[in-house]
Structure formats: C-alpha cells, structure tokens
Design a protein that fits this description.
Blueprint (H helix, E strand, L loop, with lengths): L2 H11 L6 H12 L6 H11 L7 H13 L3 E4 L7 E4 L5 E6 L5 E4 L5 H11 L7 E6 L2 H4 L6
Parallel strand pairs: 3-5
Antiparallel strand pairs: 1-2, 3-4
Helix pairs in contact: 2-3, 3-4
Length: 147
C-alpha cells in the first residue's frame, strides 16, 4: 500500500470524508519535497491536473482541516505566509535565520529537555511536533551575509 493510500485509509478509518479536493491537496503535499505554501499547493495541483480548478478558499479550508486532524503541520519559516508539510511519525524542527532567511533542520531530541522541564515544572504535556526557532545563523552573526 502506498503512503497516499495509507493516508486515505487512516482518514476513512477515523470516520473522515475524503472529498476530491482533499485528495488533491494531500497528493500535492506528498509530491512536494519541501514545506509548501497554499499557492505552491495550488500550482502543483494545476501542474498535475490542468483541467481541474480548485478554489484557493477550498485549499485553505482543507489545510486547516488537515492540521486539525494532525496530518499536516502549519508553520512560519520567516516568509509572509504559512507553509505546510505532512506530519510524519518523527518530530521536525527548524532554526530560521532572520538575517539571510536560511533554514536549518535540527535533531528533534534537542528539545527533549524542554519537554521534560515543562512537564516537571507545570504539569504540561507539550506536543512539540513541528517548531521553528528564529534568530541569527553563525554567518550572519559575524556579518558574512550583509550586503
């Protein structure tokens, strides 16, 4: 069974309806090799299915629904829009440079002490599935990216 088929089966097993538009958005996210904006998702759908028109509002509604059922992460990587990615079984975190807009993926275990401290200090069970931390990369701190 393909990843796409597994996602569809998982949604149906949980009682969710899978409309053609939801299928198209899921498929676009699966074909993307990076975090995608709603516009990029629309462009991917058009590229694969030029005869099908999907309203941008439908894409946004579908992305919110996929986020709410814990299949998609919604995050900012320092652009003026949110980006989306399918959630895997592993946590997924980024360092985003505010100087050069570079993005560095980090080992998710680095946040384990934070998760443990939140639980110990506040009794809070943090869901740290997808986090972006903003700051300056090493090169920007020493001015290598300044124009």
């Amino acid at each position: 069974m393909s990843d796409h088929d597994e996602l569809i089966h998982s949604l149906r097993a949980r009682g969710h309806r899978l409309t053609p538009q939801r299928r198209l958005v899921l498929e676009a996210l699966q074909h993307g090799d990076h975090h995608m904006s709603a516009d990029e998702i629309a462009q991917t759908i058009i590229a694969h299915y030029p005869s099908i028109s999907v309203d941008p509002a439908t894409i946004y509604r579908t992305l919110r629904w996929l986020r709410d059922v814990d299949l998609v992460s919604e995050t900012s990587l320092g652009q003026n829009h949110m980006v989306y990615a399918l959630l895997g079984s592993d946590d997924h975190h980024h360092l985003v440079c505010e100087g050069c807009s570079g993005v560095i993926e980090i080992d998710p275990s680095i946040l384990d002490p934070v998760r443990q401290e939140l639980k110990a200090r506040y009794g809070f069970a943090a869901r740290l599935a997808h986090i972006s931390i903003f700051g300056l990369c090493a090169r920007c701190q020493i001015g290598e990216h300044e124009g």
